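C-alpha cells in:
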C-alpha cells in the first residue's frame, strides 16, 4: 500500500524513531510516533524505550499538548487498547482529540491485534493501516516471534569463503581443550574484512543474546560482546553450549563476564566445576542431552531463553553448532557473509555432516537481500516467516 507524499515522509520518520529504540525496547516492540496539527506541522514525536515506560504515542501527545487536537498520529505499530505496564494509548488519543491515525501495521500479538484500531474507529477517528508495512514488520520480527511462540527469533550468522568454508584446516586442528590463552593471536582466523566485521557488531546490537559452542571458544577465544558503541538497556547475553564444562576460566569470555551476561548450558553436572563458574558470577544451567551425540537440547534452550525474555538470538557458532541448529529447525533467518577467498576441500565446512541426499529436501531461503561490505558480501534471508502462526 502506498501513501500520499506527505504521509510517506512522516511514516518514514516514525520508522526512524522506532529504530532509535533498538537495544532499548526489548522485550517489547520498537515503536515510533509523530503527531501533526491540522495544518500538517509536526508538533510531537516519541520513541518507545522499555526503561522510559511511556509509549511513543504518549510521548508524542505530551510534546504536542493542545496542538494535537484535530491532528494526525503517524505510528509504526497499532496503538494498544489494553492495560499493561501503562494505560491504553487509545484512550489518551481519543481524549486528546486526534482525528486521524495512519499506522504501518497491526499489533503482532494475536490476543490484542486489531483491538486498538477497532476502538479508535468506534470513537470516530479515521484509521488507515498498511503503509510501509514490510519495513515495519522487519523492525518488529523478533517481537512477533517471541510474543506468538514464547521463544526468540533465531538468526544464524556465519562468515565463510566462496566455497562455504569457515576456517582453514590449521585452525580446525587447533580446536582442542585449551588451558592457556595468554599471548595468543587469533586475528589470523578472520576471513572477512573490517567493514563486514563492523557490521557484525551492528547485528549483535540488534539482538538480545548471542550463542556459540565450546569448540568456537577453544579455537578462537572470542569475547562475543557488542562493541557497536550504541546504548543498550541490558547487556548482550552471551550463551555457550558446553556439555562437560570445558570452558577455560582464563578465556576472554569468562574473564569479561559481568552482571550475569554469560550463561553456560551443560549436560553433565560436575559440582566442583560448577562452583568455580558460579563464584565468578557465571550462570550455569543443565539441560537434557539429545541422543545419539549427547549435545544440549537446542529446543529446550530456546524455550528457556524465552522465559528469560530474550526475544532475539544470533548464533555465531562453528560447523557443529551450525549443523545442529539447522537440523533442530530452530533457525528463522540467516545472515551469511562471504569473503572472496577459496580455502579448499580440507577446510572446515559451514555445517558439518553428510548433508541432504536430495535437492528437494534442501532448506529454501526466501526474501533474500544482498549486502556489500567492500570486497565482501552478505546474504540475508528467511527460512520461515516470524509472523507465521504455527506450533514451535
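Residues out:
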Amino acid at each position: 500500500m502506498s501513501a500520499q507524499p506527505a504521509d510517506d515522509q512522516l511514516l518514514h520518520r516514525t520508522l526512524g524513531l522506532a529504530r532509535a529504540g533498538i537495544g532499548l525496547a526489548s522485550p517489547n516492540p520498537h515503536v515510533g510516533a509523530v503527531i501533526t496539527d491540522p495544518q500538517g506541522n509536526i508538533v510531537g514525536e516519541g520513541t518507545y524505550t522499555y526503561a522510559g515506560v511511556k509509549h511513543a504515542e504518549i510521548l508524542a501527545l505530551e510534546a504536542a499538548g493542545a496542538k494535537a487536537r484535530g491532528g494526525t498520529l503517524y505510528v509504526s505499530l497499532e496503538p494498544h487498547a489494553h492495560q499493561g505496564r501503562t494505560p491504553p494509548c487509545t484512550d489518551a488519543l481519543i481524549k486528546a482529540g486526534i482525528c486521524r491515525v495512519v499506522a504501518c501495521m497491526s499489533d503482532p500479538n494475536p490476543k490484542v491485534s486489531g483491538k486498538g484500531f477497532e476502538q479508535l474507529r468506534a470513537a470516530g477517528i479515521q484509521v488507515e493501516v498498511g503503509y510501509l508495512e514490510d519495513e515495519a514488520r522487519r523492525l518488529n520480527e523478533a517481537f512477533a516471534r517471541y510474543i506468538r511462540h514464547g521463544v526468540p527469533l533465531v538468526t544464524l550468522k556465519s562468515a565463510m569463503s566462496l566455497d562455504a568454508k569457515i576456517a582453514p584446516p590449521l585452525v580446525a586442528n587447533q580446536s582442542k581443550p585449551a588451558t592457556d590463552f595468554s599471548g595468543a593471536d587469533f586475528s589470523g582466523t578472520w576471513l572477512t574484512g573490517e567493514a563486514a566485521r563492523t557490521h557484525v557488531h551492528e547485528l549483535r546490537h540488534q539482538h538480545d543474546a548471542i550463542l556459540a559452542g565450546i569448540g568456537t571458544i577453544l579455537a578462537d577465544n572470542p569475547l562475543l560482546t557488542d562493541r557497536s558503541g550504541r546504548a543498550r538497556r541490558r547487556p548482550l547475553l552471551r550463551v555457550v553450549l558446553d556439555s562437560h564444562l570445558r570452558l577455560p576460566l582464563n578465556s576472554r569470555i569468562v574473564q569479561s563476564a559481568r552482571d550475569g551476561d554469560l550463561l553456560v548450558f551443560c549436560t553433565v553436572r560436575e559440582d566442583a566445576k560448577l562452583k568455580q563458574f558460579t563464584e565468578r558470577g557465571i550462570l550455569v544451567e543443565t539441560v537434557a542431552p539429545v541422543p545419539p551425540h549427547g549435545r544440549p537440547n537446542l529446543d529446550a534452550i530456546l524455550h528457556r531463553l524465552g522465559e528469560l525474555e530474550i526475544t532475539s538470538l544470533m548464533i555465531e557458532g562453528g560447523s557443529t553448532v551450525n549443523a545442529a541448529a539447522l537440523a533442530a529447525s530452530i533457525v528463522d533467518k540467516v545472515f551469511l557473509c562471504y569473503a572472496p577467498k577459496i580455502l579448499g576441500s580440507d577446510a572446515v565446512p559451514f555445517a558439518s555432516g553428510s548433508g541432504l541426499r536430495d535437492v528437494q529436501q534442501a532448506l529454501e531461503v526466501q526474501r533474500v537481500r544482498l549486502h556489500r561490505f567492500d570486497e565482501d558480501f552478505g546474504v540475508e534471508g528467511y527460512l520461515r516467516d516470524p509472523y507465521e502462526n504455527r506450533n514451535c
